[in-house]
UniProtKB/TrEMBL annotation, chains A, B:
Sequence ranges assigned to domain Galactose-1-phosphate uridyl transferase N-terminal in this UniProt record: 8-192
GO cellular component terms given for this protein: cytoplasm
Residues reported in the UniProt entry to bind Fe cation: 198, 311, 328, 330
Organism: Naematelia encephala
A GO molecular-function descriptor: UDP-glucose:hexose-1-phosphate uridylyltransferase activity
Matching Pfam families: GalP_UDP_tr_C (PF02744), GalP_UDP_transf (PF01087)
CDD domains noted in UniProt: GalT
Protein name: Galactose-1-phosphate uridylyltransferase
Cofactor(s) the protein requires to work: Fe cation; Zn(2+)
């Protein structure tokens, strides 16, 4: 330290750019804009007392959906085909052959796939944050079932690699159509841009120096970007929100875009897909998901809106030992300062690059500082 | 045509993927979801009668902003430094030198820049759509002034290439803080991801075959991606919304993500930045911008929200004849079916890839079908 402190780069003070090696993009960070004292949440806790069953909900057991189909009186999870799917499972139409070379400016190709809905629980008023760990284990079983089934569907009819995108939109701010706990699964006869970009960066990762022996290696014995990253985050601690000894860590990633974005990933070994989870890992995953989501809800004492997604190996599953994929979950919540103040991804962020004020380290600290007990239980809302 | 029509790929019927050669990404298109008849707009026209001057508006002439600074009684455009900038113009802090190789998973670098606001007009109740063409010509002059000035600022202090991002967020849905007509300019000591990606694809464009002699060439005499694209769109017509003989075309691009996204670009010659506009081109640009924005407002009879951004050559301007950049504007409006139904970019779109139902061709048809006269003038709202 010299007398130059005032002009030495300090990422907690100075505008800077961070690099996301998983997708090869940057984020502009403006920490000088968060110098004002953190005002905390000033709104009253959101205690919407939802009924355990809602006759108007198209997802509740026994109710009839808009297409006229009646839901069974399911007791556990319930999977059905989306009544208004963005993808169709019918065979691919044929493309007219042309003698002209393809025009790179007007390239389109037919795709196929399937859109499913998975109800997490029969009870209308629950959320993943307030479900039992065992119930979340059942949800993961439901995801496994769909992943296997969709793999067969694609194998039957395609030679190409496909993808199963498991995700959840929670809250009307994220376009969710109903509060009933549920997620979606879209299968595509190709690997979409986001996971394809990640897989490309995982496959081409080359560390600048040999990682320490304490960092686990990938299934091929080589350094693995996401395993080395998770190991470093566990050591550095400052961005860790939750850690589960079964081998999972939840961090606000160094390159987070959303204010309270979380990356949930294994830190002990490479797990190409949820099919390779041990029972202990699956239970640990359920446990850490619940803990993360309780912290989210407690941050502004509201049902925290988010999009959550699972990235794993493409379909149909090939030899898992040859996979570069590492199972991980992204949580992208839009809230910024309270239950009603959201981040807008507009203007410079659309035209230039994504930007944030709060640093990832500040966000992780805030998430660690809230209670581990759900706010609705504290104020005595009946379960 | 054989008897196989039912299974021959038809992009107006079948789910497909389109490729965006400007950024190397795809969009999933689900046209089968728009088979239902177009319901048009069912809400009453939005006729918010704003005052010509609002004492509470921080952008109106003569008013005092939150920082305590008083706006002059400006008559034309007015440019000032953002009171709460995401970037600072102070000299770059120095980075501690390290003996260790840089860690690709924790890479950050200090950046500098500047954030400015440009009021388009002293009148609180106007928008670009309702301003006179001459007044929009003045706005473009304002942009030119900032571009030159920011270039000098960067040249003085940096050796690296920078970027001037001119943009506008319009409407509270896009996070705009005030209805007063205004835009923003963020200058950065680097080229942000979006324009950098575009410039990379422009620089590496290699057409699969020699384009027709009727397609204009770039300044280097070679085929240019955006010039060939614009020339093809002018010929094909189906995605063209407006065309100005001075050399501008507004299209819903083949690879549009937002329902009524528009790309406004030159089709006659390469124009690296707005500094190279002829007076005729500048006036034509003002004219076509106004026409596009009138169509937007008329689509749902409301002040159409959008983010608009200008991409052009990086800073400091080097020899324009060696530039690959082509001046163009992106318009990203969030509305889908009415003044209140917006598209959410969530779930699969965040985790997989962007998706749309309405095709670019359908969107262009709807924009062409609305009146050229602003709805507020039709119902006799006084200017
Ligand atoms: Zn991922
Ligand atoms: Zn662009």
């Amino acid at each position: 330290m010299s007398g130059q402190e005032s002009t030495e780069f300090d990422p907690t003070e100075h505008p800077h750019r961070r690099f996301n090696p998983l997708i090869g993009k940057h984020v502009l960070v403006s920490p000088h804009r968060t110098k004002r004292p953190w005002k905390g949440q000033t709104e009253a806790p959101v205690l919407a007392q939802l009924p355990k069953y809602d006759a108007e909900c198209y997802l509740c057991p026994g109710n009839t959906r808009s297409g006229g189909i009646q839901n069974p009186k399911y007791q556990d999870t319930y999977v059905f085909d989306n009544d208004f799917p963005a993808l169709l499972s019918s065979p691919l139409p044929t493309q007219r052959t042309s003698s002209e070379p393809p025009n790179p400016m007007f390239t389109s190709s037919p795709v196929r796939g399937q859109c499913k809905v998975i109800c997490y629980h029969p009870r209308h008023d629950l959320t993943l944050a307030r479900m039992e760990v065992d119930d979340i284990v059942s949800v993961i079983d439901g995801w496994k079932g769909i992943y296997i089934e969709e793999g067969s569907m694609l194998r039957e009819s395609s030679s190409s690699e496909g993808h199963v995108q498991i995700f959840e939109n929670r809250g009307s701010m994220m376009g969710a159509s109903a509060p009933h706990p549920h997620g979606q699964v879209w299968t595509t006869s190709y690997v979409p841009d986001e996971p394809a970009t990640e897989l490309h960066h995982l496959a081409t990762y080359s560390p600048p120096s040999t990682p320490p022996a304490s960092h686990p290696r990938g299934l091929d014995g080589k350094p693995h970007l996401l395993l080395s990253y998770a190991a470093e985050e566990v050591e550095r601690k400052e961005r860790v929100v939750e850690l589960d000894e079964s081998g999972w860590v939840a961090v606000v990633p160094f390159w987070a875009v959303w204010p309270f974005e979380i990356l949930l990933l294994p830190y002990k070994r490479q797990i190409p897909s949820i099919l390779q989870l041990t029972p202990e890992e699956q239970e640990g995953l359920a446990r850490i998901m619940k803990k993360v989501l309780v912290r989210y809800d407690n941050l502004f004492s509201c049902p925290f809106p988010y999009s959550m997604g699972l990235h794993q190996a493409p379909l149909p599953p090939i030899d898992p030992t040859k996979e570069v994929a590492q199972t991980h979950f992204h949580f992208y919540p839009p809230l910024l300062r309270s239950a009603s103040v959201r981040k807008f991804l507009v203007g410079f962020e659309m035209m230039g690059e994504v930007q944030r004020d709060l640093t990832a380290e500040q966000a992780a600290t805030r998430l660690r500082d809230v209670s581990e007990v759900h706010y609705a239980e504290k104020v005595g809302v009946d379960q």
